[in-house]
Predict the 3D structure of the following.
Amino acid sequence: MKMSKNVRLLTQLALLTALMLVMANTFLGYIRVGVLNMSLLTVPLAIGAMLCGPAAGAWLGFVFGMTSFFSAINGSGGLTNLAFQYSPVLCFVMCVGARVLCGLLVGLIYRGLSAAMPRRPKLCCVLSGLSAPLLNTILFMGSMVAFFYNMDFVQEKVAQLGAANPLMFIILTVGAQGALEAVICTVISAAVTVPLKKVLKQ
């Protein structure tokens, strides 16, 4: 029974990993908005974290982060490309570390909500799905500010936006893009996870 469950979890994780890689290499994964990329990879991350748990969320966050890091290396990552030129190590932490933590936290949030509200599975999925894009934005942009805020390429963007402080820089940079990303991820991840959990009898 335990082996069957492990096989099922690994199969789900493999499918979500494959989906994430396909999305990352098509227009579905990253949609360029100015110097930033609006990412829909938080959708499979959220689904995996809710279906398979925090460790699976961390793994999918790692896959997500690596696709972002490779975008920084090949020059298609906008601000991340400039960050990579300044410090590859800090860029790796920003791209990968932030996403691993995001996936882990989404899984923990869902687990906590499910324990607190066992009779409200749909609400648990909606709130957990919402947490994925929010945490992704907070952790990624927080890392950007922590590591690169004083760099010339960020200060040029700060001047363009007229941001008075780092928090305002994050708000103005993310803007409507972040809200749209949050809505899309929340709706799709909840719409997929709720019926899947019923079918899988989780």
The longest helix spans residues 166-199. The chain has one domain: 2-24+37-199. The mean pLDDT is 87.
